[in-house]
Amino acid sequence: MHNHFNRQGVELETDSWGMIPKYRPEFHTPAGMPLWSMDVYYRFLNCGFRLPVSAGSASGVKAAPLGYNRVYVKTREPFAYDIWFRALKDGRSFATNGPMLFLTVDGQEPGAVLRFPPRTSTRIRIRAEAVSRNPLDRLEIIFKGKTVRTIRGSGKLAVDFTMNVGETGWFAARAFEKLDRTIRFAHTSPVYVELAGDAGIVRDDAQFFLDWIDRETAFYRNASGFRDEAHREAMLAMFAAARRSYEQLARTGAP
Hints:
Distance between the termini: 28 Å
CATH class of the largest domain: Mainly Beta
CATH superfamily of the largest domain: Immunoglobulins
Structural class: alpha+beta
Order of helices and strands: HEHEEEEEEEEEEHH
Largest sheet: 8 strands, mixed
Oligomer: single chain
Radius of gyration: 19 Å
Strand content: 25-35%
Low-confidence stretches: none
Number of helices: 4
Shape: globular
CATH topology of the largest domain: Immunoglobulin-like
């Protein structure tokens, strides 16, 4: 839930910030901008990085007021600064600029890990609920980057279903309000499903980041803005180290 979303509209320009190109036409629209961000996020998750959702408004720099793009975190202890951030890092969160959104997978909330024996197919129950003061458009359940259930309507939306899962992956919920001059939406952190012996890596998503790293490396090799050549070399070394990690993921499907 980043700072390109505000109450007046959606800032679509991203090229000057060195971000991943918008590789589908719909990503160049207000409704598609969050889908682009989510698509990149899902690829990180499919490379085995357990990243919680978060949010930021860049208030004072961007047009969004403080707290417009925000993250809610569920703590299990009385509130304190360190406790809140620890719960955020554990993934017990959802990010939103509009709807409230809740998810459980087999009764477990975002941040949890469900562990199963190797080579099993398990029936899992998914429940989610979205509510907003504005008309909603849809509630969606995502498994490993793919939409597995969509509920449409304008009031409170809820879903309760079961599905078989036979691979390591993750579930998340997302909800969208009806498109107006801007897009308001919410997204939970994942609930992870882990089958012993299966890393769950999607090699094509690792290759996606390899291609991105190669584009960035080519750019910084020729960029003229470095104050010192050592700074360029430090930047290239960082990309080279990242590339080795993603190359391993793409080649073997294992960390």
